[in-house]
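Annotated sample (chain length 257).
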Amino acid sequence: MRIDLATAPGSQERPNEDWVSASVPASGGGVLVVLDGVTPPAGGDGCVHGVPWFTARLGGRLTELSGSRRDMPLDRILAEAVRATAEAHRDTCDLSHIRTPQATVVVVRWDEAYVEHLVLSDSVLLLQAPGGEVAAVLDDRLERVPREVLRSVAATDALRNAEGGFFTAAADPSVASRAITGRTPRGRVRAVAALTDGASRWTDTFGEGDWAECLAVLRKEGAEGLIGRVRAVEVGPAVPRGRHKRHDDASAVYAEL
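Output written by the structure step:
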C-alpha cells in the first residue's frame, strides 16, 4: 500500500483551512479524509474559533470514527462528527448563523471486501479500476448555481444548505443525508484520490488534463507535484475569472490499494 498526501495554503497571509488525513488502523484497511473549509465573506460567521479550528475538529472526529466504527456507515459517521463538533462550541458560538464554519467533505474507507466513499460539496473523489479507467465521484450542486448568483453574498447565503442550493458540513447533522455515498468491491479499485477544489482545478477549471491524467500526475509526481502544477498555471495570464480565487488552499491525497 502506498499513501501520499500534501496540502498548501493559498496565501501565506491566511491560515490553511483544508484538512487532510490518512489512517491505517491496526485492524486492517484504511481511511482517507479530506475537508475544504469554506472561507466566510466579510462580516463574520458567528464563531469565535474560525474555520481552521472547525476543520481540525471535524476532520479529527471523522478520521477516528471511520477507523474505529466499522459497523457505522459513512453517512452516520459524518452525522455524528458534525454533531460532536457542534457540541464543542455550541456554548460559545452562534451555530444558527448562516455562515457558521463549514466544510466540504470526502471520506474513503476500505477493508478486504469493499471501498466505501462519501462526498459532500465540491471536493473530488477519483476511483481507478485495475484496468486503469478512472471514475470521478462529484457533488455538482454548487456548480449548478449560476455564477451571477454566486457573485452576490446574500443570494449565495440563501442557497447555502437549502433546498435547490448546495450543502456543506456545518452544524446540522442531518446534512449527512445529502452526501453522495457508495461502495465498490475492493477488487475493482486499484487506487483512489481525493482533492479539494484548489487542487482539482488543474482539471475542472484549467483543463490541463482529464481526470485520468490528473491521477497519473498524482501517481508519478505525488500530491506535491500536482499542487505545484496548479500553482504554475495560476500565475499565468489566462486564469479563468468567476467565483474561483486566483490562489486557493490546495490539498490532495493519493492511495494505491
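Annotation: Helices lie at 51-68, 74-89, 141-144, 147-150, 153-159, 197-204, 211-234.
Annotation: The beta strands are 2-8, 18-23, 30-37, 103-110, 114-120, 124-128, 134-137, 180-185, 191-195, 250-256.
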